[in-house]
Amino acid sequence: MLCTQASCFFNAKKSVLLLSLLHHFNSSLAYSLKNCTIKYSLNPLADVFVDCGNCGLVTVPVDIPRDVTSATLLNNLLEKINREDFSNLSKLRFLDLHLNKISHVDNGAFIQLGALTSLYMSFNKLTNLTANLFQGLANLTMLDLTYNNIGFIHTSAFQFLTSLLTVILDNNQLQKITDIQPVLELPQILSIIDNRLSLSLSLSLVISSYKMEKFSITTPTFPHLETIDLSHFCRGPVLKWEIPDKSLLKNITRLYFGDVSIHFGDIRNVLQSLDSLRHLTLNNMERWINQGLLATVCKIPTLQRLDLSWSTIINVSAKLVTCSQLSELDLSMTQTIELSKDSIRSMKRLRKLNVEQNLLSKVPDDIRRLSFLETLILSDNYISELGCDDFINTTHLTELYLDSNNITKLDKCVFEHLNYLNVLDVSDNLLSTLGDTFKLGPKMLTFLDLSRNLLPVFEKGDFQGLGSLKYLNVSNNIVRLKDKAFDGLNNLESLRISLLSKWYYSFRELQGLKNLTIIFSGAAHSKHFKQSNLHDFEVCDGLKSLKVFTVIFSGNQCDFPFPALKQTIQSMTHLETFTAFNIYISALDRDTFQFNTQLKNLTIRHTNLSHLDPVLFLPIANLQVLDLSNSELKSLDFLAQAGLSALRCLILKDNHITVINETVFQSLPALTYLDLDNNPFTCDCFNAGFIRWVLNNKQTQAVNAYQYTCSFPVAHQGRKLLDFNYDACLMNISFLFFISSTCLVVGILLSSFTFHFLRWQFAYTFKLFQAFLYDKRNMKKKGAPHQFDAFVSYNVHDEAWVYREMLPVLEGEQGWRLCLHHRDFQPGKPIMENITDAIYDSRKTICVISRHYLQSEWCSREIQMASFRLFDEQKDVLILLFLEEIPTQQLSPYYRMRKTVKRRTYLSWPQAGQHRVFWQNVRRALETGDDSNLLIILI
């Protein structure tokens, strides 16, 4: 049987409606899919909705998750449904395959879909429905096969569809009644609009078609038939209605006509034969209405609802005078200029009246007579003024829609008698003041829409009488608020408002407010704004109950000039959702959310967060959804320190992210949904880890990841990010790790061995290298005559011996020219240069060796320099005088000295019995020519 809502499937918007319904399905998440998207839901136990639409698919994707409950593959290139395409999808309840090229479906292709309740296969190329096509679909209630080429239906095609309620076979190639025989006994709704049927029926049939020439019911096959819908004929052939037995229509309660071509006499006879009709629709039927059809309609005693919309009716008021039995009347879009006096006055039972989208200039006079009216729709007319008597007697009115008119003011008396009014919509008018309209009521009003008006200011007490109001919309007015403007709104839960932010605002009286949306106009940043006004900004100060806070700036992006906004947010200790669009030009202060520990959803868009401080997120550890789209982010590194372990949804679309380190996601263990669409990714090895993570992780869905494109380097521009071959990157990285670790281990071993066994030799070599450097600087001096006979290198602790024993003999008695650092070094010259000059300006170097000498850094440098000269020139230039007995092992740091000592026989100064002999040996050493290879060690 046809139901009341059957017509929703028979118009051009059908596919759009179906798609909109999908968004009401809950969804969950799984891993990334190559061609599909899994819709996000905060509820982890929610249904899984997979969207594979508009992807150019030629086969059903193999990676659809097994726990999917709703799937759409609309607008693809599928030509065939194979038996295995939907195997293992036992939880699937909704499947949309429309707008493909499907011409064949394997028998049993749906056998695994035992839970499926809705199947949409419209706009395909099916030609016949085979016996086992729908096998397994025992729970299917909705089947749409519109716009195929179906010309044959097997007699057993619907045998498995035991729960079927609705079948749509519009726009196919069905020609005979026998073609639809298999369907007739199953559904409550059957639509076969625009087929090739030429019907002279001996069966009972419920049908909509604009190619029928005869509609005849002769046998009571459907004794419970309730609805006939003939609302989509579009001026087709003249329909001849033949139902000789009036009793066959005894249960008809709903009858829909729409632009149907039928003789006036036939349609009048039809209406006269219906004894139980409750709902009648006559869309686009002005030709018959203007001929007097309503006279017959109004005589149907059971009629309750009459829909005359889309019909241009001449003097409709006069034609409705006798329809006193109606409870609902729809006169929308009828070009009605006025309802004449007493035209609907007799409709004492009228509960709902719809006259929207007409030409009314005032509220019809008869409205005040409808004391039982509950819903009145006057939207989209030309009403400019409301009188005090317009609703004086409609005391039972609960819903009143006055939107999209030209109302300029509201008087106090207009709504004062509407004690039961719950919904009032006065949006999109020309109101410039509220006056005293709402100071006393309506007291039961819960919904008030004043958006899109010209209201400049709200005064104290403007809403004083609306104590029951829960929803208030005053957006698109750009108002300013006076102190206590919202007094009396003690139960308000949701407020949407547009403000000029240069004025003083306070919402302290709205202590029960849970949802607040503020839209600031461009005046917030105008030249009229003064810094002194900052202390006056108290947006929602003290709103402890607020859970949802949205702030939008509608002008050009500019830094939001109110530091008090941060304090405002901090005062909302129960805040769960915060949204800011175009508010901040730079990153938020790190302590902005320090008191918002219950925040779960955070959206900050159209701002500059390139210098975002991760400390900002530390107080909101329970955050589940983070949306930072269009915020000039260049990196995700901040997430590693943000502490967002509970985050499940991360949206970062339209940013400047080029490279992503996959280790960032280790700090987001609960992440299940990631959207990075429209970022300029780089296709190189820096993104290899991220690509591998997207492809291999089984928890987080990177939405549309397979559509991410490369912006850099230029050679890869436009290519798909996930098509980048990262294997070579991973191999190189592994090899580098191997080489690095091997070198590190070997280096540690060698360092340990060297330090233990060769540390002194290496130290000596280093010192020798330093001497070499100094020597190179003095190469030019090698051929010059020597200024001194010997340079004496000694430690300050041995200075007394040098002055007492050495100088008197070598300079006084023997007459040698000695160079002493305290006497002959040039003042102001670097010490190292003085040392090297002294060594190379002397024929010999005498080193006075003692334990103190070995511990001196400068003495060490002097002997190393002299040793290098000895090594470099291969001349007898070094004389070593040992003042103390020093064990050989203590000479280890001086490798060459120790080696020389081991090869020569020597006596120590303390053991020298005759000091004269000692100094004679020194003299012989000084007298030795430069070409001699003899090295004399005097001890």
TrEMBL record:
One annotated Gene Ontology cellular component of this protein: plasma membrane
Transmembrane found in the keyword field: yes
Claim: Cell inner membrane is one of the keywords in the record: no
Ranges for domain TIR: 786-926
Taxonomy, superkingdom: Eukaryota
SMART domains: LRR_TYP, TIR
Primary subcellular site in the record, as a coarse category: membrane
Keywords linked to the UniProt accession: Glycoprotein, Immunity, Inflammatory response, Innate immunity, Leucine-rich repeat, Membrane, Receptor, Repeat, Signal, Transmembrane, Transmembrane helix
Protein name per the record: TIR domain-containing protein
Primary gene name: TLR2
